Amino acid sequence: MNAVIGAMDRVFMPSAPAERLGMLRVLVGGYALIYLIIRSPFLMSYAHVDQAFFRPVGLATFAPRPLLPAVVIALVILTIVFAACFAFGYRYRITGPIFAALQLWVLTYSNSFGMILHVDHMMTLQIIVLALAPAADAISLDSRAGRVKKGEESGRYGWAIRLIAIVCTAVYLLAAFAKYGNSGAEFVSEVNLRNYIAYDNVRKIELGSVYSPLGAWLLSYPLFFAAMAWLSLIIEWGAPAALLHRRAGVVWAVLIWGFHWGVLLMMAIGFVYQLTGVAFACFFRVEKILDWRWVQRLAARFEVDPPGETSTEP
Hints:
mainly alpha
């Protein structure tokens, strides 16, 4: 029994340094902060959408009717403020969970008026995991001020990183089920993916939107699309293999990152969170970023503790 428990601990609570989890918080939180600032006009626009379109999803189902316009705008502003606290690790035990809840509310509310956008889901799930973890024990304003004490490398920091990786791989495994469920074996034929990309590009041309010239040019090569369909299914079905070993995770992360760049090039559809690589940072030793010279200069300017040092302040 002890051997089984030990094996489960190694799988679900692998040892990791506080700096790795802290850097994940910085990367994910920093992306979320920039994303929310850029998207704030769009998110605030739902304050003035016709109430007849309100079809609540997620947390918004607890609202019997659309919120007052001033409340919608105030919640978006509050979400941005708490996103900054999250990214910088300020009073994290309080601000982290509050930000995760606000982010979930604001994004589900914006999805409650007819069109459900799924580009934010992975980011939001990863934020929720980070908000429940000791992700501000290093590389944070809390650690700098001595409000938290960094522990030794252990599963205390590793469980959240592993759970973020599980969330990431589960998203693509579900995508594989959806593709196979909708099209069956036809998905990997020469025509299925080709026709889908052709339809998407023609629709965008007709609507005057941005389309992919590369995707249109490749339509003359149906075997290429059959190969791409097989490759995408293999990568997505193989997502759980990324959890078996660190190197397998790195290889899979690079492949799925390349997959998203392929989607951008052939369909002009960009999943920015994935394209930046932040979505897959959990598979890498991101604390090594602290060894970059320009990062060290920036850390020195803000007096951030170097990696390996433990705060002794009460």
